From TrEMBL:
The keyword Metal-binding does not apply. Gene3D superfamilies: Glycogen Phosphorylase B. Residues 248-345 form the Glycosyl transferase family domain. PANTHER family: GLYCOSYLTRANSFERASE WBBK-RELATED. The keyword tRNA processing does not apply. This is Glycosyltransferase family 4 protein. It comes from the Bacteria. Keywords: Transferase. It holds the Pfam family Glycos_transf_1.
Amino acid sequence: MILIIDNSNLFAGGGLQVAASFLRDLKNMNLTDDFHVIQSVNCAGMIGKEVFPNNFTFYNLEKSEEKSKAKRIKSVKKVEDTVKPDCIFTLFGPSYHKSKFPKLVGFAIPFIIYPESPFFKKISFKEKLYYKLLTVIKTYSFKKYSDGLIFETENARKIFTEREHFEKDSFTVGNTLNEIFLKPDQWADFENISLSSLNILFLTANYPHKNMMILPEVIRILKDKFGLKDFKFLITLNKEDLNFPELCNGNIEYLGKVGLEKIPSLYKQSDIVFIPTLLEVFSATYLEAMLMKKPVIASDLGFSRDICRDSAYFCEPINPESYAAGIFKLINDESLRNDLVNKGIENLKRFGTSMDRTNSYLNIIKKLIKDHEN
């Protein structure tokens, strides 16, 4: 099999981690297939100078090709025409061009799946128009420039295929934990975290849909209504990213960007994991908390219910009082905490390893190739 893996449009976030994990799995499987990997600058940075076998060929795009979609498409099509693959796998799409070869595309764009999200109530009319335009363009591209789609949750697959009358092949391959969580010998300590207070971990990137701006009000309610004083939110952003009122900064530890090898240490030093995000297809943070045996406070939305089932304490998504009440309840109810942790351990069994995910990808790719040969 000759496979092109198109990672040319991966610039940030969890997609980069999935890409690196997929490549390392393929390497460890010692397959004889030929893999041609087209990489963005950041994607290439994820594997660095790691040595791969001779059946891997890498095409690293320049910054100029990242900034220009037309240049990027031209470069990708040039590789396609040269390699003449049996299949193209765009790990996370959409792809914006028609290919001469079967193309499988991964789907992980939440605003297309959940237009009713409370996130859209919090943004301006101009921003809403922007997202609607993006939805039209990306949905068109997913439908026109793919021969099959892979979704991270069954909920997302069902919504998209039914609403868009998508009649081509569609599949669900769940996301999973980053391999670092299964290799404790590679963990590193995150130092200088005080264990004298209640620590609430908020692992987040600096995106509006992550719902960070609810935090000052949650803190105020915890202090004023519930009389809680000795607690800290450990947040993986810098102080200047948020510009919160000074009054709440005494209850926030700004950690900045944290290396993957130190994330398990943060979980170990935390009492509760706070995930108020308003828009996801999938987030591995839920699974990480389950593995590390920490109770989760989550926004009550379709994707979080789909992933967590009954193993999280769900709160009204944009209601700070609901989150504050949930945190206070968890602090004071050991039985509830233990119940959620135990349910999380059980729920985690539904999600395989990265190698399971890679095998699922390969089986789907082989099916697509076979279908297009007939």
